[in-house]
Each structure stands twice: as C-alpha cells, then as structure tokens.
Amino acid sequence: MNKYYFGGLLLFVPFSSVAMFNLIEEYDLKTQIDTDHVTITYAGWTYHLSSRNRNQDNYIWGIKYKGYEVSTMINSFDNRSYVLSYHKQWHYNDWIDVGYRLGGITGYTKEENSVQLFGITPLISPTINFHYKSFGIETAIQTDVFIFSLNYTF
Fold this sequence. Notes:
154 residues; disordered N terminus; 49% strand; 16% helix; 1 helix; single chain
C-alpha cells in the first residue's frame, strides 16, 4: 500500500500540477472565483481505484469562505475525520470551475496511512466543480480515491 501511495503521489501530483497550470494558461483561466461567498459542502461519496471494501458514503459537511475550508466526514476506514484546507479555483466556463485543494486531514492511523505528521495527512487534490446557479457537484482525486460531493453557494 505504501509503495502505491508514494508512487501515485509522485506521479500524480507533478503531472496534475503541470496540467493545471497548462490549463490555466491555455484557456486563459485568470478569472479567479469571487471568494466572498459562503459555500456549504454536503453529501459525499468516494470510489476507491485500488482497494475495495472501504466506506463509500462519507457524510461530509463543511463550509468554505474566502477559499478556506473546514469540514468533517466519515473517512474510508469509518473514522471521523476533520479537514482544514485552502481551495483555489478559476472559472473555466459558465458552469465549470477548476482548482486545487491544499491542506490536512485527521482521522487515519499509521497503519491506514503512513504518510502523516503529528496525525495529520497532507491533502493535495485537483478539483472540478460543475454548477448551475448556486448548486454544484464537485469531483476531486486524492491519491487513489475519486471524491464526489454536493455544494451550495450563498
């Protein structure tokens, strides 16, 4: 598991970062999202690419303001997790926003995830938010897990 996590991290993060910056330049995504709005995240589901028999319903609840997010969920190992992150986003078009999330997440033991410092696992995740008016569906990938959640922006 550790070699797959490190391998995925080493392969995915540099390429996703390069792809994100190429996307920003190629499509002139210099229009950042107005961060003065409050976004509530609710309902969350996951799909694990390399492991099965994990929790798929994460029951996430969170709030975002000025790009900073605080949320709680039930993680893949059925433990309560808390997330603190910064979520930067750009408009791609009228109904798609792309971005990345950086932060930390708690709730994993060393056996479940050996990549952590003081019980906090680093969080690096590209995101895509499909939205219509104030309602949105976000998808993200973190290591070998696709994450789907619903959100509402005030």
